[in-house]
Amino acid sequence: xxxxxxxxxxxxxxxxxxxxxxxxxxxxxxxxxxxxxxxxxxxxxxxxxxxxxxxxxxxxxxxxxxxxxxxx
Length: 72
Hints:
By secondary structure, this protein is mainly alpha-helical. It has helices spanning 3-27, 31-69.
């Protein structure tokens, strides 16, 4: 799998998780749900965004390396 495909799947997965979690929270409102949201769901978004940013930088770096090291 290419880094671009991985980046897209990661982004889409976060979107799907967010939608499904919002549906679950509409019917599930207790301390356990609050704890899961606080300790699992909320920390995921910034981590996924940081990972996507790192992947984008890696994609750019790899493309530059291919251009610079490729045939002239």
